[in-house]
What we know:
8 copies of one chain form a homooctamer. Helix content of chain A is 45%, strand content 15%. Chain A is of the alpha/beta class and 163 residues long. Chain F binds chain G through residues 92, 96-98, 117-119, 121, 149, 152-153, 156-163, and chain G through 12, 14-15, 18-19, 21-22, 37-41, 44-45, 70-71, 94-96.
Amino acid sequence: MSAQTTEVSVLMGSQSDWKVMKRAISVLEELGIKTEAKIISAHRKPARLHSYITEAEEKGVKVFIAGAGMAAHLPGVISSLTTRPVLGVPLNATLDGMDSLLAIVQMPGGIPVGTLGIGGAGAKNAGLLAAAILATGNDALCGRIKAWRKAQAEALHEDPLED
Amino acid sequence: MSAQTTEVSVLMGSQSDWKVMKRAISVLEELGIKTEAKIISAHRKPARLHSYITEAEEKGVKVFIAGAGMAAHLPGVISSLTTRPVLGVPLNATLDGMDSLLAIVQMPGGIPVGTLGIGGAGAKNAGLLAAAILATGNDALCGRIKAWRKAQAEALHEDPLED
Amino acid sequence: MSAQTTEVSVLMGSQSDWKVMKRAISVLEELGIKTEAKIISAHRKPARLHSYITEAEEKGVKVFIAGAGMAAHLPGVISSLTTRPVLGVPLNATLDGMDSLLAIVQMPGGIPVGTLGIGGAGAKNAGLLAAAILATGNDALCGRIKAWRKAQAEALHEDPLED
Amino acid sequence: MSAQTTEVSVLMGSQSDWKVMKRAISVLEELGIKTEAKIISAHRKPARLHSYITEAEEKGVKVFIAGAGMAAHLPGVISSLTTRPVLGVPLNATLDGMDSLLAIVQMPGGIPVGTLGIGGAGAKNAGLLAAAILATGNDALCGRIKAWRKAQAEALHEDPLED
Amino acid sequence: MSAQTTEVSVLMGSQSDWKVMKRAISVLEELGIKTEAKIISAHRKPARLHSYITEAEEKGVKVFIAGAGMAAHLPGVISSLTTRPVLGVPLNATLDGMDSLLAIVQMPGGIPVGTLGIGGAGAKNAGLLAAAILATGNDALCGRIKAWRKAQAEALHEDPLED
Amino acid sequence: MSAQTTEVSVLMGSQSDWKVMKRAISVLEELGIKTEAKIISAHRKPARLHSYITEAEEKGVKVFIAGAGMAAHLPGVISSLTTRPVLGVPLNATLDGMDSLLAIVQMPGGIPVGTLGIGGAGAKNAGLLAAAILATGNDALCGRIKAWRKAQAEALHEDPLED
Amino acid sequence: MSAQTTEVSVLMGSQSDWKVMKRAISVLEELGIKTEAKIISAHRKPARLHSYITEAEEKGVKVFIAGAGMAAHLPGVISSLTTRPVLGVPLNATLDGMDSLLAIVQMPGGIPVGTLGIGGAGAKNAGLLAAAILATGNDALCGRIKAWRKAQAEALHEDPLED
Amino acid sequence: MSAQTTEVSVLMGSQSDWKVMKRAISVLEELGIKTEAKIISAHRKPARLHSYITEAEEKGVKVFIAGAGMAAHLPGVISSLTTRPVLGVPLNATLDGMDSLLAIVQMPGGIPVGTLGIGGAGAKNAGLLAAAILATGNDALCGRIKAWRKAQAEALHEDPLED
């Protein structure tokens, strides 16, 4: 897979989701994976979502990440349109994000969505998991992930600092 | 509107939802409204759902009722495909139906779903509300609903009976 | 139905609900539907609520929207007083609005309330759903709703903007 | 107050609530308090509920107990119709009774409902609390309650028995 | 009962509860009922709580109101020490007050606590309910409560004001 | 500490709790620790609970385990009466045990209860944790716990068996 | 990758989890993917879990699936030991599986677990998602997944059958 | 046990947990118990956590306190690595700390964690409970705890102060 191919697509339903979802992009770019981000609402533009997923698959996207809040249907609708892995990030718009978590994770048998945690930590982990998925067929990427994880661990100090 | 036109469509994602959702049909038929019921999964047959909604609108359906469990996307997806009123019935497959309730009711601004209660009482009320919607333009139906409600009240006895 | 008739009544229990509930009015006015808003507490003025609902029906109101928080009885009480469609909007006064959602949506069989989401998105959707209900008998209104939905979709941009 | 006067009224919305609510009656009768039980749905018979409360007050009822499930409005509606103490018992019809609990206890300021626990223990305690309320002006009843409580405590054995 | 007797005692576990619980005192004083407020923690001063309840009953207290947060044991412990009516007010210290609500309302059969809503509305209603309890044996107080309720209703305006 | 001294007391509020709480006794006996079990309701016998805790401490009890359901006050009340470690086991009587968990674990600062999981697993773990507490001053017991844990691990088979 | 290599490992903490987790194995085998299942408790055998993960990676396992109930740590602990994709399945042992869902999905940033739904539907979807992950580098497998999905959709009938 | 030995270890997963967890240290120091605090993430540094627990036990640590948020695995992982008492403090990072509470308290049978309340009150109580555990074999410490509790009670004033 050449560096020029976009391998991960990060989708969300509205501009307001971007400040959280860009954390997925950041970690993917740190790991050298080309991504694209799009705002396409499952509810407001269902036909456009359908055409986008088809186009994205055709141009080489292998993993989809979708962030959504409230009655969060975007990840599940994407999963109904593709057999590629779909990762869902519940966003906290109301009810501390519990509505969104349940609306993403409780998919019926046959249409999977791999769900990450609510909000920023979940978005970051969606990026990492997408990288790990691509690394199942890419040893160099696997090495970069291991290095990233090692650096993350080494950055921690054992002794608490006063605030 | 002649009696031959199907005015309400009742949709659900799987055969197992039928035993609850048929309570919506029952009350609609009691009130003399022609309905049809279909099992079309939003996740497993997204394209078929799209074509069905278009066909249904063309043949005169004016209200859609959709029952769904778990990450219940069916009512919201239908609302994204039509401007007709969509009523949602959360079904209890897991978590006492709380996942389904939140996945149906918490729709983002712009794509409404009128949500009824969890399970059988909700299905019955979806039928009644669909009838009330049609009655906004049909005085004869309005009279039948008033009679139904009156009969319902009169069937109650004030003195408790030992079991 | 002439433009002068008030077709939708938006009710709430206290002045503090107005800042959310006026979003229902806004969307109804954008769609050319005449509405009126009233503050009538189900608990503090039960007899006045009863007389208002009767008067409103007589002067042509076809859909009632009611917003309420906490042990939110207003939509259910209205539904017990009329056979017209009643739409409920749970307001977040405590417990993130979960108390209000359950107190509105879990109506017993026979007395339906079509419930929208918690807070502002729900109020806006209540307005849209009321319009969709009136449009089942009004093709011109149906066209205005379709145009509104199309404009809403077209206002979205696919590429995220930095904050 | 003579023994012939009915001092407590126990209300519920449907026959199916009786098997729980009769526990309130039992404890009131054990304490020598005259009660009556009625099934009057707040939603299905709002006008009858209004007239009943007025009649009951006139014939001497001093405390109202109301059991209700789901979007449980009965206790709150009664409290809006009387200034007598109203005690609410949440019944478990769905969601383990959590919907009912919140719909009863979260009353707005100005219209109180004293809420007991969900189900049978709550019904029994509603009877006891109604008795305690009447005993604030009745020393003989106060003595009977103390005796009841003492007997209850003495019936307990400290050493567990194998099942 | 002379005006000099303290008829209601309002208890709480810490000074920080006072800003909410004083709303109970306010309404009781408006209705001409003599009260006293005390901070006595069920957990930190169990023996003092026991002696206080005995003393309070002896000097004529007829209703106890207790506000508590978190694992809110104060109302239940008071109910175990007296047969007088005990009203509980859940305070929101954590978890939106849901922990406190459940720890107060879910009392086992035999030891009742009449529970009001979470926070300020609940405290106000506890005062009103205590007054209603005393009014079961005091017609003059009953009249003052009716006047209070009427004034409350009349203070409401039906037309929303812009903020 | 001689084998004759009772070192752990296991308390519960009613006979119905015994079938779960005896799992705490079982594990303590397996580890050679002398225990006693008592049914003493915090709400029905507050004075007896007080005297029992004092007696138990005097005869050498070093750890208290208390199981309780619903508005579960027993562990917290015991902690208010002793400075010895108190372990709480939430029992599932209603609401899946969530009411009991919150009523036990959310103790205010200053009065600790070490809380275990809901039901049988929690009761077993309360026994194990009580043993671990005693083992901080008893190396022989520490060795027995290590052996128990090792045997537990060795009893597991890695390959699933068909049912 | 030859057919002889085990590419997916399905782990669980106890034999009782097998009846649910074998649904993941079933779908993987239908899709021609070699798997192995192991019962290794994160809590009872932490060192063995560590050695197993290392061995499994060395012999070619590319995706880990872990099912766990209650305070479900297994998926997160595995993710801390490998950079391969880890999929978590919450099992319903208590609290309807809500405890397990939160203990799996709410991982801190840096250690991802892709979480599926609670129970059997989640286990099946974990198998499907693991297959989709492997298919990002295997076009033949991708074709088999598409065929599986198509067959799934075609098995649905649109007309409800009476029970 | 000499005063120089560290008897309690307080662990947490990140620097941000320190502002809450230091409340455990404060109370332990007030009671004259030597402690140490370390930041060691169960997920980011699993091997280091393992080696630290072994070292700590060898140098005399008798009780472990662990604070963690979200999918809070730290206390349970520590309990899997030692037979010493482990106390868990749920921290509120998301969902009001409910995710963390369930991920800590709902441990499977055989691996106990004594769980305290969410946040600061829980951290303080973890310190107190650790002291009570050590006091089962240390009468002087037991006396200091009794004095601390007495001082805590005496600091309370019974009469509320205006804010």
